[in-house]
Amino acid sequence: MSDSPLLQTRDEWLASLPRVYAAAGCLISDPEGRVLIVKAGYREHWQFVGGTIDVGENPQECATRELQEETGIVNEAGELLAVAWTHPSAELEHPAVHFLFDLGTIPTDTPITLPPGELDAYRWATPDEALTLLGPSRSLRLTAGLAARSDGRTRIVTSPNSGF
Fold first, then answer.
1. How many CB atoms lie within 10 A of CB 92?
2. Domain map (residue ranges) of the chain
3. Rounded distance between C-alpha atoms, residue 123 and residue 104, angstroms
4. 3-class DSSP state for residue 49?
5. Cβ(71)–Cβ(49) under 8 Å?
6. Less CB within 10 Å around the terminal CB: N or C of the chain?
7. Which residues, including other chains, have CB under 8 Å from residue 78's CB and lie 6 or more apart?
8. Tens of pLDDT along 98-107?
9. How far from 61 is each of 86, 91, 149, CA to CA, in Å?
10. 9, 21, 71, 91, 157 from 87: Cα distances, Å
């Protein structure tokens, strides 16, 4: 009889791996440099247009889909600006990853149609206003996203809490 530990089966090994919540968001600006943020009635802070990644889609497809669902705007997500990682916490039992994509600049008077029952309001906020309204984890993503826009280098950040 061997003293070496038994190897796990593939299914046991896969079951032992951490699960990750995944979402994608959109950084959208107007010609004045303000950013588009939205407010859900069930959350304390404002958020980016975006949401959780559905089975069968990639993060960029998610951002494109969420843009249309949450604003009525049809536009394909552009470059990946930032990836935010959040460790498990009391708020979420699994790690979370959030991808922030560049959706470019759109005119301020572009019609925006919010989905009833999901989002209550939208606004164009200066970056400084948005940093306050978004809360700590989303503000970190905004700072990283704006920096990535300016120099073309994707950022990876670790959020203090989920912002999910």
1. 16
2. 25-158
3. 16
4. strand
5. yes
6. N
7. 101, 102, 103, 104
8. 999 999 999 9
9. 22, 27, 20
10. 27, 11, 30, 10, 11
Instruction: Return d(Cα 99, Cα 83) in angstroms, integer.
Output: 5
Report the length, in residues, of the chain: 164
**Contact (CB, 8 A) for 24 and 50:** yes
What CATH number does the domain located at 25-158 have?
Answer: 3.90.79.10
Q: What amino acid occupies position 142?
A: L
Q: What is the largest CA-CA distance in the chain?
A: 76
Quickly tell me which residue has 């940093």 as its tokens: 131
- Dihedral class, residue 69 (left if φ above 0, else alpha if ψ from -120 to 50, else beta): alpha
Global pTM value: 0.90
Mean of pLDDT values over 71-97: 91
CB atoms within 10 A of CB 66: 23
Where do the H-state alpha helices sit in the chain? 10-16, 59-71, 127-151
Q: How far apart are CA 45 and CA 40, in angstroms?
A: 8
Q: What radius of gyration do the chain's Cα atoms show?
A: 18
The DSSP H or E segment spanning 102 is strand 96-105
DSSP states of 69-90: HHH--------EEEEEEE---S
**Separation between Cα atoms, residue 96 and residue 86, nearest integer Å:** 5
